[in-house]
Give the backbone structure.
Amino acid sequence: MKPSASPPPIVALSAYERNGEPFSLAPEYAGAVCRAGGLPVLFPPQCPGGLDFIRRCDALLLTGGGDISPDLYGAAADESTHAVHPDRDAAEIALARAAIAQGLPLLGICRGMQVLNVALGGTLHLDLPTTVGTHVCHRSTSHTPVLHSVEILAGTTLARILRKKQVRISSWHHQAIAVLAPALRVSAQAADGVIEAVEIPENPDVLAVQWHPEHTYADDPAQQALFHWLVERARQGWARRSDRNSGQPDTVAQPGEECR
Ligand code: MN
């Protein structure tokens, strides 16, 4: 029988409360994944079964959102802390760890990068204007994303994907990585030293950015390249898993049995 074309990889996206809806997602994430050839499915933050969910998926995209509860990285909330959802924190940290443990490709976006860092033992700046200043504007009070440049560090997975030394990105965050998790390395920085992207050096399947590629993917091939990377890594991982399965012998009828 002729083998059929490989199906689109299933990309899990972490959904969240949005506009009063407890299970929602900004549509640009799904649009960018679809354009890259992936099939987006939403993970509800109310669901504790992240491990079972991840086993059925080919990649994980951790999305943007509110603050991670500061007690998860040994800090106390202050007046800048907003939109904390303990259920979502627990679900996404479990998803991130499960994806890494199972060798699934992972792309973290904005809060998703912060989740990855906290899941692996790092900490966050509670509020960038307070701790780092406003030399670079990372978030505007007008609720409109701002654009700023980031420098891509040579020799990183991110540099291979973007093929640029500098990109202009859409930014909407008031927190950032403070202490980098031991397993991570920095792959992009803003002019004020804020960490803008991270990856796991010995794992080419884990990458996260502090900015929002889903804001500008439609007009910026460099940003769309991040979603293509995720889907392509998922496709390669899917092929590896299929190879493993195809190595298993088929069950054959034993003496005295027949197949009907
Ligand atoms: Mn920024």
